[in-house]
Known about the structure:
The chain is α/β, with parallel strands linked by helices. It contains eight helices and 18 strands. The chain has helices spanning 4-11, 36-50, 67-79, 108-112, 117-120, 133-142, 231-241, 273-278, and strands at residues 17-21, 31-35, 57-60, 82-85, 100-103, 124-126, 146-152, 157-163, 170-172, 177-180, 185-189, 197-208, 211-217, 222-224, 227-229, 248-255, 259-266, 290-293.
Amino acid sequence: xxxxxxxxxxxxxxxxxxxxxxxxxxxxxxxxxxxxxxxxxxxxxxxxxxxxxxxxxxxxxxxxxxxxxxxxxxxxxxxxxxxxxxxxxxxxxxxxxxxxxxxxxxxxxxxxxxxxxxxxxxxxxxxxxxxxxxxxxxxxxxxxxxxxxxxxxxxxxxxxxxxxxxxxxxxxxxxxxxxxxxxxxxxxxxxxxxxxxxxxxxxxxxxxxxxxxxxxxxxxxxxxxxxxxxxxxxxxxxxxxxxxxxxxxxxxxxxxxxxxxxxxxxxxxxxxxxxxxxxxxxxxxxxxxxxxxxxxxxxxxxxxxxxxxxx
Length: 311
């Protein structure tokens, strides 16, 4: 695992690029070269949004091997402010005032378990995957302005933010707009970045040039008996109706009759899922046709879910 000092040596070198690694949550992990100019553009936009200046304090309990950790270091360097490196763990201890704390979903409970956290943290930035209904509610109830980022390694972290508990839409960072392609997938547009126009594999409903609703991954769309199913959207619906539903995800598998069918992979104990799903006000066609019980959901190295049929 790379250290902050190792990353900063690379960042401050004469090389125009930083080597970064994709997470592998939606495909094979790969190494890419990120222009430092793009990283600076992203850092400046985030610093403006959160009011990060020389007297600010940023904190990360995240690995420097991934873009979230790297960009927090860049934001601190661009602003000339202090950066606190915490142990990379799901147990996060904040012992000083922090203007921006970057975390991933599994760290939410630990952060909010501190009764004095509202006096210590001014903003929380969450990345690395979707939030459960319970974590969403907890962050919203904390009173700390908390945001879910949309972005990827190629965009140098987020290009849009969604205020947790306040909004269901993502709002573009300055200088970024959105479009869709003929698949219904989001296209990120910006003259400020080297990529200019970046197609994604995320199905989205673009509401205005600067706002969109995320529906799910194009790769994960399931066509079952002619019905198009978006697993992530169905998951969100289930979690909203049953916040205490055990960890799960939905994935498709081939089916001789329907072409494909929806499968649930869950950490729940056998026998309870059918009863819980029966309480959901959801189109029956959108409920899983098979349930697989596992001890632990499979994850990529950075904690993101790996949506596979795992038995």
